[in-house]
Amino acid sequence: MKDYPGAFMYGHGSAGTGTTESANRAAFDKFRIVPRMMRTCTSRSTEVKLFGKRYASPLLLAPIGVQGIIHPDAELATARAARKVGVPMIMSTASSRSIEDVAEANGEGDRWFQLYWLKTPEVAISILNRAAQSGFTTLVVTLDTTTIGWRPHDLEKKYFPFGHGTGCAVGASDAAFMRLHGYSEIKHNMHVEYPYDPDELDRRAEEGDEDVKERMRFGNIWSREMNSGLFRTWDDIHFLREHWKGPIVAKGIQCVEDAETAMDYVDGIVVSNHGGRQIDGAIASLDALDEICASEKIRSAQKSGNFTVLFDSGIRTGSDIIKALALGAQAVLLLQLNIYSVGRPYMYGLTIAGEAGVEEQVRNILADFEITMGLCGFNGIQDLVGNRAALIRE
Questions:
Q1: Is 300 annotated as a binding residue?
Q2: 316 is in an annotated binding site
Q3: pTM assigned to the model
Q4: For this structure, is 274 an active site residue?
Q5: Would you list the domain boundaries of the chain?
Q6: For the chain, which residues score pLDDT lower than 50?
Q7: Which candidate in 12, 71, 164, 274 is catalytic?
Q8: 30: exposed, middle or buried (Cβ count in 10 Å: 0-12, 13-18, 19+)
Q9: Domain 5-151+234-393, CATH 3.20.20.70 — does that match?
Q10: 98: Cβ–Cβ under 8 A, 6 or more apart, which residues?
Q11: For binding FMN, which residues are annotated in this chain's numbering (predicted)?
């Protein structure tokens, strides 16, 4: 924060006056866990099954873009740490490293791919194919970011990494996208040098630095592809089904009606408000989860294995995970401080110590969760998911 306040605030900030972000955390304080004693919890299991595959815990690393503004190793460090800890990484379309490079860094780890719904069908198909070929098993399509929300701090500080060509590696390494815009070859290693200094790059552009000017031009093209302002409908999901053979998860669901509609189109949802970064004054994500998982239709589909409910926005501790699971989530995404899932905390780890920092952050929250689970009398995830009686609401 001291050295690069712009990068810190880009990750820390939220939409408008920040009321949605604040509501996300306040919602957790409204629920209290009711511990149970004298239960057989000596040998506990945090294992969970999602889309037919078993994972060691109900924790996933949320999709966070432009990690190159945080650490020079960017998404590669996160991918390596996720593999070591044994948690799935969800790669963002706005990454500062290519799909192939992140997959290589992740090795034998589990990885999902997050899609900002691209404007051009041919580009979307190409990127989906690359993700599948690189071992990404589940597609997480973000519904709430057809355009970027109103974020006063970024506007005031003119802090927009895409405008200088960072967070654009997925596009720069895509042959279909590059051909579409007149480039004869892909730019596999295109990313802004660390630390990202927008003022310095603007100065260099004004002085005629052609490399910086080209990156700025490219960044604006890619940004318009990702955040085109083109609003989709549920029927458009058929396009994704045609070009993606694995599970599809819709991220950004915040009401019961949308959740029930989603059951006809996708395999699961992420109950999320983007960490409060898109809409000011919106419902807290945990409150939305509580309402959605109170739906008999949703609960029945979960029990039958036909529908999966995930959660993000606000998770910080092991107790937070317990609360989300008890309300009905089957797994949670970890963001940064307030970014997407369990996102922001692990971004702070990346900032401080790169791969080792991410690994330490994730191990800490997993240890917190496993210990607290036992102390509360839960032997496994099966005791927790949908166990509303484990909580009281103040």
A1: no
A2: yes
A3: 0.95
A4: yes
A5: 5-151+234-393
A6: 336-343
A7: 274
A8: middle
A9: yes
A10: 169, 170, 172, 173, 188, 189
A11: 63-65, 92, 114, 142, 251, 272, 312-316, 343-344
